[in-house]
Amino acid sequence: MPGWSTLAGMISGPWGKVMQDLLTPLITGDRRALSRAITLVESTRADHRQMAQDLIAGLPDRQALRIGLSGTPGVGKSTFIEAFGTKLTEQGLNVAVLAVDPSSTRSGGSILGDKTRMETLARNPRAFIRPSPSNTHLGGVARRTREAIRLCEAAGYDIVIIETVGVGQSETLVADMSDLFILLLAPAGGDELQGVKRGIMEMADLILVNKADGDLLSPATRTVADYAGALRLLRKRPQDPEGFPKALPVSATTGAGLDAAWSQMLHLAGWRRDHGHLDRNRAEQARQWFWSELRGGLLAKLDRPNVKARVDTLGQKVAQGDLPPARAAQDILDWLDDHRE
Fold first, then answer.
1. Three-class SS of residue 70?
2. N or C: which terminus of the chain carries fewer CB neighbours within 10 A?
3. Confidence (pLDDT) at 247
């Protein structure tokens, strides 16, 4: 793969200038250039997508520790990230936060309020926070989150935290783009255990019970014990050392437990790296990225005017009960085969 300077030189015309102007400051850690690059990869314009692909292809091969974070609404994900991210920057680490906000299925809009909830971290010169809309994309992440991760790594960030929109059956996609998957929960005396899906429990590397302070310290301790017991019932994964996954108490307000949680993350990431699991995981993630892009590209073909018109017509027949859904879908697939370019 050509280096970034070689690639930029190969691109002629205005694109070449844009690439040069964007790549040079990006790889030196310029946060404005990073923001512009993420805006570029999130664009759906055809010319922007081509530029974004050229940009991603020319990035230097840098790796950060990718930490996926999911949790129930109101558990304090933003407060935790601010406290945890601040602690990491105090150790001299550069931290990028990719916070995904849910988009309205009606208007398509998002509040994008995560940056305002992390005021201290947002002002930290060693931190970068980027809220993005999910655009109704399933999996708790935005469609271009993988590309945004690569851009943050190229910009020199040591830790990339991917915060999902919430916890549920569809939120496990973040595990396919992170090195460590953290599940943040609130003290619930064990009751919340009934509401957490087994799938996300099996993917979690660490379960952190937040708000373990004050009057909630005792309930948090019991909740940690409940989850520790539940985790022992799960089959041990080959990519884990003895004792993982595990549950720990933390307090984003007081900072209690954050050092212990970070120590466990480092231990787990180091063990996986030393035993080759991290590299194999990254390779499989790249394969998943390919399939995700392929599926997205195929779905995008349905938005072409002639295809969309036929989809709308058949959709109306399905709604009226004149055509079974499976037959209508097969009709579209057959029609696409007959009208291949």
1. strand
2. C
3. 94
143 versus 192: which is more confidently predicted?
A: 143
3-state SS assignment for residue 104: coil
Domain membership flag for residue 168: yes
Query: What's the pTM value of the predicted model, to 2 decimals?
Result: 0.83
Same domain, yes or no, for 177 and 213?
A: yes
Nearest to 237 by CA among 199, 263, 202, 280: 202
Which DSSP symbol is given to 237? P
Domain that holds residue 44: 4-57
d(Cα 277, Cα 178) in Å, to the nearest integer?
Answer: 13
* 36 and 81 both lie in a single domain: no
List Cα–Cα distances, 95 to 69, 133, 188, 268, in angstroms.
14, 20, 30, 19
Nearest one of 313, 305, 315, 312 to 339, comparing CA atoms: 305
Q: Please report whether residue 282 resides in a domain.
A: no
Q: What is the CA radius of gyration of the chain?
A: 22
Query: What percentage of the chain carries pLDDT values higher than 70?
Result: 80
Tens digits of per-residue pLDDT, 111-122? Answer: 344 556 788 999
Give the pLDDT band (50/70/90) at residue 10: very low
How far is the C-alpha of 5 from the C-alpha of 251, rounded, in Å?
A: 45
Residue 185 phi/psi, 5-degree rounding, is: -130, 165
Total domains in the fold of the chain = 3
CA atoms of 97 and 162, how far apart (whole Å): 6
What's the CATH number where 186 sits? 3.40.50.300
Q: Identify whether residues 194 and 142 lie together within a single domain.
A: yes
| Mean pLDDT, residues 284-290 taken together | 88
Region for 104 from its dihedrals, namely left if φ exceeds 0, alpha if ψ lies in -120 to 50, beta otherwise: beta
Which neighbouring-strand residues pair with 100? Answer: 132
pLDDT digits (tens, 9 = 90+) for 53-84: 888 888 888 999 999 998 877 889 999 999 99
